[in-house]
Amino acid sequence: MDITVVGRNAEIHPNFREYVEEKVSKVTLFYPRAQRIDVELTHEPNPRQAETAERIELTVFGKGPIIRAEASSSDRYAAVDIASGKLFERLRRARDRAKDHRRRYNKPIADELGGLLDGVDEPVGAAADVEEAKVNDTLRSASDLKLGEEREEQLGDSPVIVRQKLHEAEPMTVDQALYQMELVGHPWFLFIDAETGQPCVVYHREGWTYGVIRLNTKVEGV
């Protein structure tokens, strides 16, 4: 399993890299088919945000869904501990849910989460996971973006920076999209509805309620 550690406005010291690698290597206990873990450390130089100056984002890629966790603290080691704790809990829940679905219902979601189970040989599709907003027409066209590539651009003459990233998008049901949203820890999730072919967004509302926004169009080939 490959582990990549990068910093934004932060220097990655060898001791910190060793600590992170030892910590996240435990992912394989919950996700045997994990292939890569991206670790991103971001330092906030604003002294007013000293209590959350060190932000860690962990992203796991494998034969199942993309799973992410993040945390902020005044200490980068503490941020790693908090983020990895969240990640392990999400991986554990995903593994248990996949086993439960396969045992009781054999529904498609169990197959999509099959990469979290031992002894599962069938390939599974990658999940859609869009974390950035779509492009504004003042930015360069996204048509030349490659899968997994990340690009940051300044919005015109303003100080606003827009990050773009291209993700794979496999059609899924609303139930599967809600579960994917839970795995990546985001308040919303963009996906293609397998039944209607529409681009949709599921999002958290108050309490235990959710919402779905649908676009009045259809993706070709769905």
**Helical content (DSSP H or I, runs of 4+):** 25-40%
Low-pLDDT segments? 117-138
Class by SSE composition: alpha+beta
- Name the beta content range: 25-35%
Rg over alpha carbons: 18 Å
Helix count? 4
| Span of the ends, CA to CA | 33 Å
Mean pLDDT: 77
Tally of DSSP β-strands: 9
Which sequence of strands runs across the widest sheet?
Answer: 1-2-3-4
For the biggest sheet, the summary is: 4 strands, mixed
Globally, the shape reads globular
Give the SSE order as H and E letters. EHEEEHHEEHEEE
Gist of the model:
About 25% of the residues lie in helices and about 25% in strands.
If you had to describe this structure to a student in words, what would you say it looks like?
The chain has 222 residues and is an alpha+beta fold. A hairpin with a 6-residue loop joins strand 5 (150-154) and strand 6. It has a four-stranded mixed β-sheet. Helix 1 (14-24) packs parallel to helix 2 (76-104). The chain is built from four helices and nine strands, in the order βαβββααββαβββ.
